[in-house]
Design goal:
alpha/beta, Macrophage Migration Inhibitory Factor, four-stranded mixed beta sheet, 2 helices, 4 strands, globular
Length: 112
């Protein structure tokens, strides 16, 4: 935890390494999470249909344990979308959603 899940459709390709590392760096630079805690993953979409006619998108869902201020979450959202716009200038739509996870319900198990 935190988790950054990136859904995307990019018919012209995507520099996956740049997206993953760019989002990790933006998340750490936000000051609200530690590098060793961040998990970033990509989930490609097989097909899309967007009502506005755009043909590509990237959407990041950031799941964090509850407790960050609304201002901190907004700053993270802006940092993530700005980072993606810089790395992926040809993508039609870029968005981010910051979600709180209930610390009483979130559990994990690490090997070794």
């Amino acid at each position: 935890m935190p988790h950054l899940v990136v859904e995307y459709f990019a018919p012209d390709g995507l520099d996956r390494t740049a997206v993953l590392s760019g989002l990790l760096e933006a998340a750490v630079a936000s000051g609200i999470m530690q590098r060793q805690d961040v998990k970033v993953r990509l989930l490609p979409s097989e097909a899309i249909l967007m009502g506005d006619g755009r043909a590509s998108f990237i959407h990041v869902t950031a799941s964090l344990l509850a407790g960050r201020t609304p201002e901190a979450k907004l700053q993270l959202s802006v940092a993530l979308t700005d980072t993606l716009r810089r790395i992926c200038p040809g993508i039609g739509a870029i968005s981010a959603d910051i979600r709180d996870m209930d610390p009483a319900c979130y559990k994990k198990s690490l090997k070794g």
